Amino acid sequence: MPIDLYYQPGSAPCRIVLLAAKSIGVELNLKRTDLRNKEHLTPEFLKLNPQHTIPTLVDSDGFSIWESRAIITYLQNKYGKDDSLYPKDPKKRAVVDQRLYFDATSLSPGARYAFGMFRGETLDPEKMESLKKTFTFLDTFLEGSEYVAGDHYTLADISIVLTVSTLATAGYDLSPYKNITRWYAKIQKTLPGYEDINTKALAELKEMIRKGPPK
Ligand SMILES: N[C@@H](CCC(=O)N[C@@H](CS)C(=O)NCC(=O)O)C(=O)O
């Protein structure tokens, strides 16, 4: 039985799972799920995930799980060949978890809000100031550190690069953050499958932004 991933290539959290699966070395059976056609609201899909979000993973034994970061830690725990992406040492793992939760609760919600700028929405300066602070925290985590949770890349880099690359592609200026800029240049070359999985989707995103919001 295959491991199914319900996904859409344009969705950033779906690309977190695609990239992580590549690094973990696990093969996924990709099931394209068109949100515009409400394929995530069918009774069959709601049985798998009552929260009706993609990505949703259904393992070969029928176990289903959603939330991109919960999916990638599950895949690593079940199928990972070694623990370099998600260390077993409690303290090292805690640092990776901290970065994953930081992305889930601070960085990516801020980035999602700022993305409104590129859809022509007027943004609250206070919220944009708060995003700046969040980026400054990430820059501090990277001070003297090659990757976001230490000297080699982990699941946390995969999660965070999706947030940073989406915002950077939309035109958010990373130049004030010297450590993020250095890390971002490197991680794009480091992650297996990055070009195929993320670069192409970001080029499409850029084109969408260039065309502007639908009339
Ligand atoms: N925090 C979630 C976000 C998932 C999410 O919001 N996915 C969007 C697509 S990018 C979705 O499924 N939206 C449809 C819905 O919520 O009904 C994750 O990381 O997996």
UniProtKB/TrEMBL annotation:
Q: Which organism is it from?
A: Aromia moschata
Q: Sorted alphabetically, which Pfam families does this protein's record hold?
A: GST_C (PF00043), GST_N (PF02798)
Q: Which PROSITE patterns match?
A: GST_CTER, GST_NTER
Write down the SUPFAM superfamilies for this protein, in alphabetical order: GST C-terminal domain-like, Thioredoxin-like
Q: What residue stretches are annotated with the GST C-terminal domain?
A: 89-215
Q: Which CDD domains match?
A: GST_C_Delta_Epsilon, GST_N_Delta_Epsilon
Q: Name one GO molecular function term.
A: glutathione transferase activity
GO biological processes: glutathione metabolic process
Output the InterPro entries linked to this UniProt entry: Glutathione-S-Trfase_C-like (IPR010987), Glutathione-S-Trfase_C_sf (IPR036282), Glutathione_S-Trfase (IPR040079), Glutathione_S-Trfase_N (IPR004045), GST_C (IPR004046), Thioredoxin-like_sf (IPR036249)
Q: What quaternary arrangement does the UniProt entry report?
A: Homodimer.
PANTHER family per UniProt: GLUTATHIONE S TRANSFERASE D10, ISOFORM A-RELATED (PTHR43969:SF9)
The record's similarity note reads: Belongs to the GST superfamily.
Q: What is this protein called?
A: Uncharacterized protein
Residue ranges occupied by any GST N-terminal domain in the UniProt entry: 1-83
